């Protein structure tokens, strides 16, 4: 099987076999490697374009044929460079989308853990018991307020004396 068909059929690394596809980390690593490789190729093509431009200038009007050939090669390199730019943009977009998807997956997973923890905490609580407890607390607060009011009223010795 050729390398290209292995790439498109997913017959790549041994770590991704048997699980239905690569993990997000593996995919991100491969995308970053591809980005680096394409960036290096960009740099190479840019230097080739500069060389061909220098060759065209060097031959100038003296050897028009060699100058035209250099300009044609330069044009081909520029076309390849534009293709690489488009490919890099697509890869960057895909990498960012994958990173966002991975982040969303982690957030969702953590929210699920939090929901399970809340469920576990609330499992020991009964709404009827909580309601009864809140009524008891309210009654005790009312009693405490009455006691406080009774203590804070001025003692009127002799003013309310009935003959």
Automatic annotation (TrEMBL):
Membrane topology listed for this record:
Peripheral membrane protein
Membrane is among the record's keywords: yes
Please note every region of biased composition (Gly residues): 9-21
- Chief location of this protein? cytoplasm
Disordered: region residues: 1-25
Pfam hit, one: Snf7
Intracellular or extracellular location(s)? Cytoplasm, Cytosol; Late endosome membrane
> Is Membrane found in the keyword set?
yes
Q: Which GO terms describe its biological process?
A: late endosome to vacuole transport via multivesicular body sorting pathway; protein transport; vesicle budding from membrane
Quote a single Gene Ontology cellular component term: cytosol
- Entry keyword set: Coiled coil, Cytoplasm, Endosome, Membrane, Protein transport, Transport
Quote the PANTHER family the UniProt record gives: CHARGED MULTIVESICULAR BODY PROTEIN (PTHR22761), CHARGED MULTIVESICULAR BODY PROTEIN 4C (PTHR22761:SF77)
> What family, per the record?
Belongs to the SNF7 family.
Query: In its UniProt entry, what is this protein called?
Result: CHM4C protein
Which organism's genome codes for this protein?
Agelaius phoeniceus (Red-winged blackbird)
